[in-house]
Every structure is written in structure tokens, then in C-alpha cells.
Design goal:
It is built from 16 helices and eleven strands. By secondary structure, it is α+β, with helices and mostly antiparallel strands. The chain binds protoporphyrin IX containing FE.
Length: 419
């Protein structure tokens, strides 16, 4: 039985697959956290209805197949090459390098996320650290209601996060906005409106909305950074962990995971099903509803969907639903291999395809692979393994997140990968 996050105690908890499927898609189900709305501003997780649909359309531009394929050919490729060079430089005379997996991946993803939102120059270790500091402050400020502390302390944390946000704007936003405003003006003057960077800031700026001022942009950018970096880091570390365990009894699958893209995708989905990146989804309903299991929600009621539990529903995933089986999706009746790892309904993760690829083959163009899948394969190619000489991987018992905070690994396949 998975632990229930303490903050949802007292709320109606949806744990079954069918209930989750129904309730997340209902038009009367609203997303958004009331306590954080002032701090977070009008970011898409806080919007609902037509306003939400419109904003998603604006921001979806950078998640279209063509953008994502191009992104993987250029930005992601460069980041992986830089990582491999960095690792090769750090290797000892036997070509062996030892590192902490989550912190290494966090840095790569910070660099990638900065490019996706449209911040320039976040490409050194120090720059990534600096940006991450801001993101971490934002995460605390935007989830302050979950702090088990006094109201005074919550106010203090909120105020501190607001100050940090103002500093973030001066440090990063102002320069990014000026540069992109000039690029958009240049493209328009040349009659090439589309010839502008594909990032979140540019996607918003092209709409010329006077109410989308620098404060608004700051809120959007910080939300995107916090939605993408930690989530993908957790996903990659957990997938590597599950696969390394799996290879102990299935040694031939190590090469299969490198060579067989479908197998690797299934493995990543299966790991995401078992290790969801957010502890729970919070929703409220505007109308009374009775779910397939008989659970009843009253109009105006706030409730939670425990996606981690729904993802282990034995009626859908089988009696061994708690176990990792990368071939599970081949069994009949499994239509959503990662379960609700990316939620469902209108607030389904907008970055899903960026993270794990997928989507239809359009005019012969195959969809992108996904950052998470590509990075897991990169790590397998350089022969990643748990470092037998270091402390064992460690999770943080003080958080509701299903994540490793330390995971010492050893890599010895670098010459092949770099060549
Ligand atoms: C493996 C990686 C990821 C997982 C498992 C994941 C999972 C999720 C989940 C469960 C939600 C719904 C949250 C809720 O409703 O409370 C969500 C929403 C969201 N995610 Fe992701 N996410 C991942 C990566 C990303 C990336 C890379 C981005 C952006 C670049 C991103 C951007 C967002 C945004 C903006 C939303 C809000 C969507 C909306 O409300 O319409 N996520 N994600």
C-alpha cells in the first residue's frame, strides 16, 4: 500500500483507475490551488474552461511534433554531447567515472529547460546552480500551504519567495524579454513572422497582450521551470533504477533497451506508472457527481486523485501491478501504459511529448523520442551501473515525492559513446 500524502488527509480520495479516468475528464472538474493562486498568477495549471484552452493553444506551439523533432536534433543533442564530454573529462585512467545521478541529470535538465522557456546563457555549472536556486525558492513559495508550520511562518516564506521572484525578473527575465522583443520585431519587418525562437517567452510575446507584462512572464517562466526540471529528473532516475534492477535477472535486456526503441519506451512508461512525479492531483468539482465505484462528490467539494494508487489498480494492470515489467504494455487491455503519470483530461501534462515522445506518424515523419527516453538510453550506452563502492541509493523520507535524492552510479563505457 502506497503512503497517502499527509496534505490530502480529510479530502475525498480517488484511488481507482476508472474513477480517476472519469473524474479527471469531466467538464465540471476544475484544477487549481486556491491558496497559491495569488502567488502563482494566471499560469495554466490554475486556469480552467475557455481561458485554459486558449492559453494552452498559445503555449502548445513549442510542443508541436516539428518543434520537438528539431529540438531533439539540435538542443538536446548538444546537451548530451556536452554531458558526455564532461564525463569523459572527469574519468580516471581506466575510463571510469563515478557520479551522483539525480544531481547530474538535474543540471542537464536545467540547461535544457532554460532553452525551452527562453532564457539565455544558462550553460555552465554555476549558471545552472544559480537558476536552480530561484526555481527551488519558487517551488516552496507556490506550495506554501503544504508547509506544516504557523501562519506567520507561511507569510514569511511567501514574502521571501516574492522577493526572490523580483530578483529573478531582474537577473533573467528583463534581458530575455528585450532580446526576444527585438527578434520578433526584426522577423516582422522582414515579413518572416515565423522566423522567431521556439520558446515559451517568444510564444507569449508574439501575442502582444498588454496585460502580459514582465510580472506575468516571470510567473509563466518560473512555473515552466518548476514543472519540467524536477519531474523529468525523477522520471530518469527512477527509470534507470528500475531497469538496472531488471537487468539483474534479465541480462539480455540491457542491450535490448539500447537497440529496441519500443522496448525502452515501454520501460520508461512502466517506471512512470509505478513512480509518479507528483504525490497527488488536487481538483474541485462544480457539480455533484457519483463515480463508477460509488464515491460521491458534492458540488464545490475539493478532492484529490491519488494517481500513484490508480496506476496500481490490479483490475487494469493485473495482480502483479506493483511489479516492474517493461513488457506489461503488450498485455491486452492496457490502453494507457504509464497510467495517469501525466494526468488525464484538460490538464494533461503539456510537456508529455517533450518528455517521452509519442504521437502519430504524420506524412512519414516519426514522432520525437522524448528527453527522458533519450537520456535513459544515453546512460545505458555508457554502461551505467550502481556504484558498488558507494553508499546505496537513498530516498528522502521527509518528502511525499517518490524520488531518490542520492544515487551513486559508475560509468565505464565512455570512449564508445563519445566516439
Ligand atoms: C516525465 C516528466 C513529466 C511528468 C511525469 C509530468 C507530469 C505532469 C502531471 C501529472 C501534470 C498534472 C498536474 C496537475 O494537474 O496537478 C502535469 C502538468 C503540467 N506539466 Fe508536466 N510532467 C513532466 C514533464 C513536464 C515538462 C518537461 C514540462 C514542460 C516543459 C511540463 C509542463 C507541465 C505543465 C505546464 C503542466 C500544466 C498543464 C495544465 O494544467 O494544463 N511537464 N505534468
Amino acid at each position: 500500500v502506497l503512503p497517502v500524502p499527509s496534505f490530502v488527509e480529510g479530502m475525498t480520495q480517488i484511488t481507482g483507475y476508472s474513477d480517476a479516468d472519469v473524474v479527471l475528464k469531466l467538464p465540471t472538474t476544475l484544477s487549481g490551488r486556491l491558496e497559491s493562486s495569488q502567488f502563482m498568477g494566471s499560469v495554466i495549471p490554475q486556469l480552467n474552461g475557455p481561458e485554459h484552452i486558449k492559453r494552452r493553444q498559445v503555449e502548445s506551439r513549442i510542443f508541436a511534433t516539428a518543434s520537438l523533432t528539431e529540438w531533439e536534433r539540435s538542443g538536446l543533442r548538444e546537451a548530451i554531447d556536452a554531458l558526455l564530454i564532461r564525463l569523459a573529462t572527469a574519468a580516471d585512467e581506466h575510463g571510469v567515472v563515478r557520479l551522483d545521478l539525480p544531481s547530474t541529470i538535474l543540471r542537464v535538465l536545467t540547461n535544457l529547460a532554460a532553452a525551452i522557456v527562453g532564457l539565455d546563457g544558462v550553460d555552465t555549472a554555476d549558471a545552472c546552480e544559480d537558476l536552480l536556486g530561484f526555481v527551488n525558492e519558487y517551488v516552496v513559495g507556490s506550495s506554501v500551504e503544504w508547509l506544516k508550520t504557523s501562519d506567520d511562518e507561511r507569510d514569511r516564506v511567501r514574502q521571501h519567495a516574492l522577493n526572490t521572484r523580483a530578483e529573478f525578473r531582474t537577473r533573467y527575465l528583463d534581458a530575455a524579454l528585450s532580446r526576444r522583443t527585438a527578434l520578433i520585431a526584426g522577423a516582422r519587418a522582414a515579413g518572416r513572422d515565423d522566423d522567431v525562437p521556439r520558446d515559451i517567452i517568444t510564444s507569449l510575446l508574439v501575442h502582444d497582450r498588454p496585460d502580459w507584462d514582465a510580472d506575468f512572464m516571470t510567473q509563466q517562466v518560473l512555473m515552466y521551470l518548476s514543472a519540467s526540471i524536477g519531474t523529468s529528473t525523477r522520471a530518469i532516475t527512477n527509470a534507470v533504477h528500475e531497469l538496472l534492477n531488471w537487468f539483474v535477472d534479465h541480462p539480455a535486456d540491457r542491450q535490448r533497451a539500447i537497440d529496441d526503441a519500443d522496448f525502452l519506451h515501454r520501460a520508461v512508461d512502466e517506471s512512470l506508472r509505478l513512480h509518479v512525479v507528483v504525490p497527488a492531483l488536487l481538483r474541485r468539482t462544480t457539480a455533484p457527481v457519483t463515480l463508477p465505484s460509488g464515491i460521491h462528490l458534492e458540488a464545490g467539494e475539493r478532492f484529490t486523485v491519488l494517481i500513484g494508487q490508480a496506476n496500481r489498480d490490479p483490475e487494469v494492470f493485473g495482480a502483479d501491478a506493483d511489479a516492474f515489467d517493461p513488457d506489461r504494455a503488450l498485455r491486452p487491455g492496457i490502453n494507457r501504459p504509464a497510467g495517469f503519470a501525466f494526468a488525464a483530461g484538460p490538464h494533461t501534462c503539456i510537456g508529455k511529448r517533450l518528455a517521452v515522445g509519442g504521437g502519430a506518424v504524420i506524412k512519414g515523419v516519426t514522432p520525437n523520442e522524448g528527453t527522458v527516453v533519450t537520456l535513459v538510453r544515453t546512460l545505458l550506452r555508457v554502461n551505467i551501473m550502481v556504484d558498488p563502492d558507494a553508499l546505496p541509493p537513498r530516498q528522502d523520507p521527509g518528502t511525499d515525492y517518490d524520488e531518490f535524492v542520492e544515487y551513486a552510479v559508475r560509468i565505464d563505457g565512455l570512449p564508445v559513446a563519445v566516439g
